[in-house]
Amino acid sequence: MNRLKLPPWLVLLLPAIIILSAVVLIPLVLSLYSSFTSYRLTRPDSIFNWVGFFNYEKALTDVKFWAAFGRTVLLLTVALNLEMLFGLGLALMVSKVTQGQRLLRTMMMFPMMFSPILVGFQFKFIFNDNVGLVNNALQSLGITDQAIPWLVDGQLAMFSIIFAEIWTATSVFGILILAGLYAIPRDPLEAAKVDGCTAWQSFRYVTLPFLMPFIYIAMAIRSLDVARAYDIVQIMTNGGPARRTELLWTLIGRTGYVDARMGYANAMGYISIFLAIFFTIYFFKKLTQSRKELGMGA
Amino acid sequence: MKTLLSGASRAVLATASLTAAISAFGTAQAGEFDGVTIEAKLIGGQQYEALYARIPEWEAATGAKVNIISKKNHFELDKEFKSDIAAGTTDWCVGSNHSSFASQYPTLYTDLTGLVDKGVVAEFVQANIKAATFDGKLVMLPRAQFDVSALYYQKDLYDDAEKAKAFEAKFGYPLAVPETWEQVKDQATFFADPPNFYGTQYAGKDEAIVGRYYEMVVAEGGKLFNDDFSPAFDSEEGKRALQWFVDLYNAKAVPAGTTNYLWDDLGNGFASGTIALNLDWPGWAGFFNDPSSSKVAGNVGVAPAPKGSAGVRTGWSGFHGFSVTEDCANKEAAASLVEFLTNEDSQKLESAAGPLPTRTAVWDYISEQAKDDPYRREVLAAFKETAATAFAVPPTPLWIEATNLIYPELQAAILGDKSVDDALADASEAVDDLMQEEGVY
Amino acid sequence: MASNLNHRMRRYTLKGLHFFGLFSAMMVLCVPGLWIVLNSFRPTVEIMAKPPVWIPNELNLDHYRAMFSGIGEGGVPVLTYFANSLVISVTSTVIAILIGMAGGYAFARYKFNFKGGMFVGLMVTRAVPGVALSLPLFILFARIGIIDTHFGLILAYVALNIPFTIWLIDGFFRQVPPELAEAAEIDGCTRWQAFWRVEFPVARAGIASAGIFAFLTSWNEYALASQLTRSTTSKTMPVGLLDFTSEFTLNWGGMCALAVLMIIPALILTFLVQKHLIAGLTFGGVKG
């Protein structure tokens, strides 16, 4: 018997590699190819119409594309940072509670139970300017006598989307950072107390460095996942009005499916994949680094 | 045993329901399609599904079976059809279709002209048949889901003597249900009391606002596209039409969020009692007058769509229908199903719940039925009047794509990011680029 | 004495602030969700009312009744969607966990070339936006003929969940000193037995937390499901939500009722396994 013997690690990784190749890699190759064609969904033959870098040129010289690109980066940066801050605050407050933690933790994770598409509808109605919950509340409380156009105004529309995104995702940060808080060894904190550190100092110099890996993990998970925001944005504003909330994903989705220009959509998709990969790798680097600083790295 | 059974069922059908079958199914004959299975992709949603309960009747009559392999809402279905064309999985047979979207699938559906009897086609409203014909191909038979918009309004606004006096003093003509869009603008501004009450509202995004703009351009005497599909809306008429939307927005006569509204927001808005005048679809008539869903129930009036300055009524219209795919293995059976789903009985069933028919005889039938219901009579009269001069979207496969280029510019003008002139010039240029890139001219 | 009082005042203030902060945070997190639950019991005319109806005049089960009734009378095949969702989410979670365990074990226990690169490579597959993936995936699945099947969606979700499970479980196995398993092997266990008796129990919490994340992702996923499912044979609940919309209308109350049915199982599950979840995240993610 001369059987091919694979190393055990490869055998163990094989199922993962096979499935990911089948479901992610092959489709990606397919869409990479189509990004060099003038492929239109409604004219299947057009997939053989090679146009070289035409689609990429078109995207890279298009002001609308770059505006959407910038807005996406802005959304990612603002949302991820705020989610991190709120998650941190939330985790700190929950960890200080002595009774009913179990219930509080479940409440904290409540938004994670909501499908992104549901979140989209939910906030579309909550932020409706005429019969929405927020404006009704503000008007009933006498805070304003205006109908605030949450989903239309240049700044507020982005705010509303970021709010919805933060609402769904803060839980992920909260729960990860909470896990980190539970794992903090008591000794350094006590030592800090003995040395006369203020609460702020012991937080800043003991707790926070210890939490950093957890924060980067959450960042990495979220940056893997943010494209989920597509469902939310698509329902809430679909990139409008007047392209004020246009993100890469809404632009790509519309170009690909509604306009049926898959070739062009895939070219833009590839540029956005690089953006996602950049964010992911960036946070992984940060994670490894902070692990090393804590002496936990492998 | 099997043959015996099918033979028996055939016999039963032949004797028991011979006359009924022949009268109801026209050309279809009992047992004609024994053993055939028709795969269908149908539009889902409450308004559309009551009709599908009739399918077993067709199955029993023809011996064929219908297998519904997809049921989704209209926009999801559109995405699915495009994906199907892309993947080449188009050997299912019957699909729901829409007149505004049909031109996008030039290769998907077959020409029904040879498959459906000429006499049957003649029984439909001919304007609808025309809108279902692309490049000489009749791609679908319309069902009783014809859509054109008429003006819903709150009746009591016109009963108030003081309001009437104040209005006349300000505008110089008596307050009455508006017949022109100019009057709608005056009255909407007059009634508006933001943030509690608005004069009117309009759909503000996607194809919806382009459709509204399109009918307004036509009502102003202009055209959206020239005959070669080059853009024609960057014109005096086009500017006047857009200015109407801009003026209402600036006067705060429409809700501030209107540029993010789609049909459901508009319907819910009018039902909440905060909108005076509302150009909307026939499907809402029942909803608006039902106390469990609407606060304006009992206070709803319906008038034909107003006219623009050219004396033309707005009347952007569309309808749902059924098509047969080019790759269908048994087109005769599929066409028979399509015919059945759009026949007189089917249309009577559907239009009994509110939607408008596309067969001449059924229009007469429902008018007769509504004799004793004043609200329903008013609704039908208004829509019938509007339907008489209704028009479909420009028949180009690039229609939807063009709307995606136009609507952000319309929004920009409404929100004040651009002037009307700039917005239309930009939109026109973008559409022109698209048409040239696609080799339309 | 005075400083003592001062001190106590400070503590009370802090406590008050803490309570207030926690309360408002929980309000923000829960109110939008509870609003959905409330809407599912209210007639449409009250949900969209203006002036708003703050104290419901009427709560009823109409939306639920309609949802379970026949097609055409407001009915939606909820139970079928629920069953589809359950089968697809549970199966894909279990498979993702098994594959994740194998993969995590490989990363934790073996040394090989390009390990770091491979790891990041696996992670990056998750970063591909669904919009860019859905069409080629659809074409591929359509060619193999697994559109609108449980299998197709399960396959997609397994792929979606593998990167994160590998990552979390990898960290966990690193917690177990290799000597432990080696000792067991010396005691006469096979490698396989040693794994199940020694290493697996330690990693259980990590598996639970990977499991809940995987389950929630599959349970709530929409973009791929809307592309890969078509009829009641495989449509899941998030896709089913769209049954309440049609070209012109949207039945928000009905949608809320279905949403409640989606949320409850997820909530119960989370409540039950959250202890493991916390422990799992602690070790799995970081300490590796």
From TrEMBL, chain A:
Recorded superkingdom: Bacteria
Membrane topology: Multi-pass membrane protein
Location in the cell: Cell membrane
CDD domains named among the record's database cross-references: TM_PBP2
Domain ABC transmembrane type-1 intervals: 69-283
GO process terms (BP): transmembrane transport
Membrane-spanning ranges: 12-33, 73-94, 106-127, 156-184, 205-224, 267-284
InterPro entries: MetI-like (IPR000515), MetI-like_sf (IPR035906)
GO cellular component, one term: plasma membrane
Keywords, in A-Z order: Cell membrane, Membrane, Transmembrane, Transmembrane helix, Transport
Protein family membership: Belongs to the binding-protein-dependent transport system permease family.
Family matches, as PANTHER family: BLR7065 PROTEIN (PTHR43005), SPERMIDINE_PUTRESCINE TRANSPORT SYSTEM PERMEASE PROTEIN (PTHR43005:SF1)
Name of the molecule in the record: Sugar ABC transporter permease
Naturally occurring in which organism (per UniProt): Thalassospira povalilytica
Automatic annotation (TrEMBL), chain B:
Keyword Signal: yes
Location within or outside the cell: Periplasm
UniProt superkingdom: Bacteria
Signal listed as a keyword: yes
Principal cellular location given in the protein's record: periplasm
Signal sequence, renumbered to the chain: 1-30
Keywords: Signal
Entry's family note: Belongs to the bacterial solute-binding protein 1 family.
Protein's recorded name: Sugar ABC transporter substrate-binding protein
UniProtKB/TrEMBL annotation, chain C:
Domain named ABC transmembrane type-1: residues: 82-273
Function: Part of the ABC transporter complex MalEFGK involved in maltose/maltodextrin import. Probably responsible for the translocation of the substrate across the membrane.
PANTHER family referenced in this protein's UniProt entry, alphabetically: MALTOSE TRANSPORT SYSTEM PERMEASE-RELATED, MALTOSE_MALTODEXTRIN TRANSPORT SYSTEM PERMEASE PROTEIN MALG
Residues passing through the membrane, by range: 12-38, 86-107, 119-144, 150-169, 201-219, 252-273
Protein's GO biological process: transmembrane transport
Family statement: Belongs to the binding-protein-dependent transport system permease family. MalFG subfamily.
Organism in which the protein naturally occurs: Thalassospira povalilytica
Membrane topology of this protein: Multi-pass membrane protein
Name by which UniProt lists this protein: Maltose/maltodextrin transport system permease protein MalG
rRNA-binding found in the keyword field: no
Keyword DNA damage applies: no
Gene Ontology cellular-component annotations: plasma membrane
Compartmental location: Cell membrane
Record keywords: Cell membrane, Membrane, Sugar transport, Transmembrane, Transmembrane helix, Transport
